[in-house]
Amino acid sequence: MFKNIFQNIKVLAQINSMSSRQTSSASNYGDYVKFLELVGNCKQIKRTGWVLRNVDDPETISGHMYRMSVMSFIIPKDSAIDRVKCMKLALIHDLAESIVGDITPYCGISREEKRLREHNAMLEICSLLDKSCSEEVLKLFEEYENQETDEAQLVKDFDLYDMILQAYEYEKRDQAPNKYEEFFINTKGRFKTDFVRKLVDELQKQREEFHENFTSNLKKENQSAS
User: What predicted TM-score, i.e. pTM, was given to this entire model?
Assistant: First the structure.
């Protein structure tokens, strides 16, 4: 924990140094356009996991982050979770990929190197923002990475859940039941929150029903053809 605190202090010092060069809000508009262009990269970059599996028309980084952020609306109202913070965490958590791309375990890059690249990318992104905004964005990014708050852990569950939900949607779209079973296997037992576990259970139920219906219809077609 203390290591993370010291890292944050160092990072904020870097941001303060960058922000001190920003003399007025009027002079920042050019940087704001650059910032928004970087955000726009996320609308173009395809998610690596699907690209490596030759998925037709795979989702983009921004599509993934958007649905994660919308998930904050369905967090139970009686929960103590800060829903607005969850939305912000979801929108920020992959923003570094606008510069470094979507790095996965299959890319041959160590976890440490990945974190360093993303950290440096966030510093570059935050250098385009005013001090208060850059501090908030970087704090949100570090909070998600450190996984020490209830909100960060819930949003991490959203991240994993969106992945398996997307896998199921591709299976349905392509009429290929269980084609992306590896994603369900790799996420099994990794969900930490009761809310998302219930979503996973419901998804598994619907996925099994899809498989059963697909198999049943295929048998009927074969019988009719024979």
Answer: 0.86
Please give the torsion angle defined by the CA atoms of residues 203, 209, 211 and 214, in that order, rounded to the nearest 10 degrees: -140
Q: Following CA atoms 99, 104, 108, 114 in sequence, which dihedral angle do they give, to the nearest 10 degrees?
A: 50
Tokens at residue 11, please? 């990072």
Q: Which of 7, 2, 13, 43 is nearest to 134 (CA)?
A: 13
Task: Write b or e for each residue in 139-158: b if 16 or more Cβ atoms lie within 10 A of its Cβ, otherwise e.
Answer: bbbbbbbeeeeebbbbbbbb
Positive or negative torsion for Cα 201, 207, 213, 219: negative
Contact 89, 143 (CB under 8 A): yes
In tens, the pLDDT along 28-80 reads 899 999 999 999 999 999 999 999 999 999 999 999 999 999 999 999 999 99
Strand partners, 60: 46
